[in-house]
Design brief:
Blueprint lengths: L6 E5 L5 H11 L4 E4 L12 H11 L2 E6 L3 E5 L2 E5 L2 H14 L4 E6 L15 E2 L4 H20 L7 H21 L5 E3 L2 E3 L1 E8 L7 H11 L3 E6 L4 E7 L7 E6 L7 H8 L9 H23 L2 H6 E5 L2
Parallel strand pairs: 1-2, 1-3, 3-6, 6-7, 10-13, 10-14
Antiparallel strand pairs: 4-5, 8-9, 11-12, 12-13
Length: 311
């Protein structure tokens, strides 16, 4: 099964870029990190402000690095402060994502806006990699816990996963407990398992991808028959595995997510951008996470359903 990782945006000033890279390296084991300098995540013909507003909804988490960049006069004293744009970007992500998803790492000795007073923010020395790692680790634990506990955002696939589970998986799992025996080529199958196949990507119509997938692996179309209805399904039939038969389903409900992403990005052309791929993978990860949470709530589903990757 895919090792799901959150998408993490890392921001800094140009001078703080070396530290941001070290933060990215330290977080790479728990997330897919994208540093602000990556040109592939910026949309052309958009202002920096507009791009940042959009990215605040594209990523799962934002981590910002405040380094000693500017000398300013405050109350007749010269103080060292981070670059204004870093604080602004942090504030944008904080407003869009909430305090559990936006984090600031602060170089020792610099002054922050008074609005941040009383909020714990780990400090680091840019010349000491161990302090950067220690500061990063403090947030890594929070990110991992938040992501694994299934704190959900209002992504489109959250609703899709809930609907797919309630309208298909739950009903199929309950039916499988009382289904009539399935007899194929004289072999009887009475134990039914379901494998939900998450597509590799959302490029193209999922229904067509599913049809190609079933045919490629030689699955057999048949029906799981219960007292009240039939459940047309694709089966992997192996007489040596009887009485167990495996049902496969690639959720066609995911069809349209790719089109929705293109609309959100206001794309007027064909082709796939890096940021489109980031959003797409976030949506697929979210669909899987929500579906797994629902499966884990049902002992029947836990015994019957497995989420796998397209193969």
């Amino acid at each position: 099964m895919t090792d799901l990782k959150p998408k993490i945006f890392i921001g800094s000033s140009k001078a703080g870029l070396p530290t941001a890279q070290k933060v990215s390296d330290n977080l790479s084991s728990i997330g897919d990190c994208y540093i602000w300098e990556d040109p592939n995540i910026w949309e052309t013909n958009k202002s920096t402000f507009d791009n940042l507003l959009r990215m605040a909804s594209y990523f799962d988490f934002g981590v910002f690095v405040a380094t000693a960049d500017d000398l300013t006069m405050t109350n007749d004293k010269i103080v060292i402060e981070p670059r204004d744009n870093v604080i602004l970007e942090m504030a944008l992500f904080l407003g869009a994502m909430g305090k559990h998803k936006s984090f600031l790492l602060v170089e020792s000795g610099i002054k922050l806006p008074t609005d941040f007073s009383g909020i714990y923010m780990p400090r680091f020395d840019p010349a000491d990699d161990s302090t950067i790692k220690s500061a990063t680790d403090a947030y890594a634990r929070t990110i991992t816990e938040h992501y694994e506990l299934g704190h959900l955002s209002l992504y489109p696939t959250t609703a899709l996963a809930i609907g797919y589970y309630k309208n298909f998986v739950k009903e199929l799992v309950e039916s499988a407990q009382k289904a009539n025996p399935l007899i194929i080529d004289g072999v009887t199958y009475t134990d039914f398992k379901l494998k939900v196949v998450v597509p590799e990507n959302l490029k193209g119509r999922v229904r067509e991808k599913a049809s190609l997938f079933y045919n490629r692996h030689g699955f057999v179309e048949n029906s799981l028959v219960t007292e009240f209805r039939k459940h047309p399904s694709w089966f992997q039939i192996d007489p040596n595995s009887a009485p167990t038969a495996i049902l496969y389903d690639m959720p066609s409900t995911l069809t349209g997510i790719d089109d929705a992403i293109e609309l959100i990005l206001e794309k007027g052309y064909k082709g796939r951008t890096k940021i489109q791929e980031v959003i797409e993978q976030r949506e697929l990860n979210n669909f899987r996470r929500v579906l797994q949470m629902l499966i884990d709530e049902s002992p029947f589903a836990q015994q019957t359903v497995e989420i796998i990757d397209e193969f």
